[in-house]
Design brief:
The structure holds 2 protein chains of 2 kinds.
Chain A: H1 15-19, E1 35-41, E2 47-53, H2 55-58, E3 63-67, E4 90-91, E5 97-103, H3 106-114, E6 117-122, H4 129-132, E7 155-159, H5 162-168, E8 171-179, E9 191-196, E10 202-206, H6 211-222, E11 228-229, E12 233-234, E13 241-242, E14 248-249, E15 254-258, H7 274-284, E16 288-291, H8 294-300, E17 307-315, E18 321-331, H9 339-349, E19 358-366, H10 382-399, H11 403-410, H12 429-439, H13 446-449
Parallel strand pairs in A: 1-16, 10-15, 18-19
Antiparallel strand pairs in A: 1-5, 2-4, 2-6, 3-5, 7-19, 8-17, 9-10, 9-16, 11-14, 12-13, 17-18
Chain B: E1 3-8, E2 11-16, H1 23-30, E3 49-52, E4 55-58, E5 71-73, H2 86-93, H3 103-116, H4 122-128, H5 139-152
Parallel strand pairs in B: 1-5
Antiparallel strand pairs in B: 1-2, 3-4, 3-5
Classes of the chains: A alpha+beta, B alpha+beta.
Chain lengths: ~450, ~160
């Protein structure tokens, strides 16, 4: 069979519009009469808002509308809806939106923000996830600082018996690794343009990387009425019902238009601006555009949360890893977002491409007074891979063994079972490492070059 | 409000501006020339790069009045004849675009370099593009494209 596409060079489908400057991003949509949106953000990391007065801002010439929590029909959203659109009482991170203004231009919008008066009782925040886990730590959330996976404070994934494995092992090697938080900082910041349409409908031009997901969230927040979506989703990771998706109405009243995205990298998977522009467009009956500043993007947008990963390995003299215990602590910031899912995903993937017959992973998801962590390139997988691969080097060092040899020795072969109970049908770590060595100019010994994943012959 | 007179991509323009208006705002919001992008508004990312009387500038931190009586060239202006500029062709052929947000500024920065130095070395290209960020991190192909375009450039004499 002749392949028409595979192996052929193809031009990038949107390359021509990029190189001629014709690609349109949300900020490139210019509608006459569009109002500029700016947010009043929390000046403190943690606190309790006792009162808010926006009357002086509302009465300013050039201000078309101001919204607070009182204007949000359903002030909770998220995978498990725990995050307010606008703060009602509890402030959980610095920069959390408290109110938003729509004005004729940026200058007026900023001036209006200065006239919003809030009375906040500041409370002691906690930033370090390890400190947040201590019993007497300041509470980020009333239910506690550690997310509960059912009845346990961690996502548990295991196979075999690690205690038995550790007893049999010749060496125990334990290390803790830290993977810092990162900001995507796409060149295009968060931008949203909401345009009220006839019949109470709304069009939102969005930078979202998860459009259908956000459509559901927006319908849940805006409660526009209309047809109900007959759908009930059980969160497969926590077992809790995702109530924001249940019997939701009004999804047919919001049109969410995806545009060219000026870089996402996972930084646009969480609602950032669309809910607030939508509320202001509904309130003012005018198109409302909110473009985050670079400063807002760096300080308050979602980011990859930091992880502490402790790995304890039971290793035989010949290099085989026979037992592994992994404890991960994921700093998810102030709200659940994707974080509980991330702790689960970490646990499923921390097995890596190695065969470990006895493995137990406990993945914690901890709340701190920081902006919400979210997805980023291989999210929840990269921190585990980083820790596991550095650990492989540490083991090799301790045994005085070549790190290549150690990896071949523990490579997943056909028929091996992962921690998730998945039996590998077509693994390729061995072949990948052989190809990699060649390209890197590393000459591997014959016994490693002869190995195949297919044979299931451990060396 | 002062009247700003300038030439943009060969066209004479007159716009009312405030003294604080940036050249980027004039291009995007008054003249609807949308290829220059706002990435940082502090002159750090280069997404707003345009050529002002032959010199590469960050239009977001260039006061519009600075362009008074001068000529601005944006990405829209380099293929006005309908034919792709050698740089555009090279960016397409070498897959130098990813999300596309940095592309207009990147091509203008490369054009400013080639106008000055038709056959730059790789380090010279890297230096010339150092004010332009690509967060998709596709720098290698961008540099390769500029190399390819410089060899193709009729002005280089090769």
């Amino acid at each position: 069979m002749a392949l028409e596409v595979v192996g052929k060079r193809a031009l990038k489908y949107d390359g021509m519009s990029h190189i001629t400057g014709q690609s349109r991003y949300v900020d490139d949509i210019l509608i006459p009469g569009t109002l500029t949106v700016k947010a009043f953000r929390s000046p403190v990391h943690k606190g309790r808002m006792k009162s808010i007065d926006t009357s002086k801002a509302e009465n300013m010439p050039g201000v078309a509308g101001v919204i607070t929590y009182r204007d949000v029909p359903h002030n909770a959203y998220g995978m498990e809806p725990d995050q307010p659109v606008l703060v009602e009482k509890d402030i959980r991170y610095k920069g959390e939106p408290i109110a938003a203004v729509a004005a004729i231009n940026e200058k007026v919008a900023y001036a209006a923000l200065d006239r919003i008066v809030v009375d906040i009782e500041e409370e002691e925040p906690v930033f370090d996830p390890l400190k947040a886990m201590e019993p007497d730590a300041p509470k980020v959330r009333p239910e506690g600082n550690v997310y509960m996976f059912g009845s346990e404070p961690f996502k548990k994934v295991y196979i075999g018996d690690i205690d038995e494995g550790f007893r049999k092992a010749d060496h125990i090697i334990e290390e803790t690794y830290f993977y810092p938080d990162m900001e995507h900082s796409a060149l295009e910041t968060q931008v949203s343009l909401a345009v009220p349409e006839a019949m109470g409908k709304l069009t939102i031009y969005t930078v979202s990387q998860a459009r259908n997901f956000h459509l559901g969230m927006l319908a849940g927040i805006l409660k526009l009425g209309g047809d109900a979506l007959q759908c009930e989703c059980i969160n497969e990771w926590s077992g809790k019902t995702r109530s924001s998706w249940r019997g939701k109405t009004g999804m047919n009243r919001v049109r969410l238009e995806g545009y060219a995205v000026g870089g996402g990298f996972g930084g646009k998977n969480e609602l950032h601006a669309d809910h607030i522009t939508a509320l202001l467009a509904l309130k003012t009956a005018r198109p409302c555009k909110w473009r985050w500043t670079r400063e807002e993007e760096l300080l308050y947008s979602t980011h990859r949360g930091p992880w502490y990963v402790t790995i304890k390995d039971g290793v035989m003299n010949d290099g085989r890893i026979i037992a592994r215990y992994v404890k991960s602590i994921h700093d998810g910031g102030a709200y659940i977002g994707f974080n509980a899912y991330a702790a689960g995903k970490f646990s499923y993937f921390v097995n890596g491409p190695y065969y470990v017959p006895n493995l137990r992973c406990e993945g914690y998801c901890v709340f701190t007074n920081k902006p919400v962590a979210s997805t980023m390139r291989g999210f929840a997988v990269a921190p585990g891979t980083f820790a596991v691969e550095v650990q492989m080097h540490k083991i090799a060092e301790k045994l005085g063994m070549d790190p290549w040899e150690l990896r071949f020795k523990n490579a997943i072969l056909k028929g091996d079972q992962l921690v998730t109970r998945q039996v590998m049908k077509d693994p390729s770590l061995v072949e990948t490492m052989q190809a990699l060595a060649k390209r890197a100019g590393v000459t591997l010994p014959d016994h490693l070059m002869r190995m195949t994943s297919e044979s299931n012959q451990r060396i | 409000m002062p009247v700003l007179e300038l030439k943009v991509n060969g066209n004479d323009c007159q716009v009312l501006v405030e003294h604080t208006t940036s050249l980027l705002e004039v291009l995007r919001e008054k003249l609807m020339i949308l290829s220059p992008k706002m990435g940082c508004n502090t002159g750090d990312c280069g997404a707003c790069s345009v050529i002002l009387d032959g010199m590469l500038v960050h239009s977001c931190i260039t006061p519009a009045m600075v362009a008074s009586g001068k000529e601005v060239i944006t990405l829209e202006g380099i293929s006005a004849s309908g034919e792709l500029h050698p740089l555009q062709k090279a960016f397409q052929d070498n897959h130098a675009t990813q999300c596309g947000f940095c592309t207009p500024g990147m091509i203008m920065a490369a054009k400013a370099l080639l106008d000055e130095n038709p056959k730059p070395t790789e380090p010279q290209i890297k230096k010339a593009l150092s004010g332009n960020l690509c967060r998709c991190t596709g720098y290698k192909k961008i540099v390769e494209s500029v190399m390819a375009a410089s060899a193709d450039n009729p002005a280089s004499g090769s």
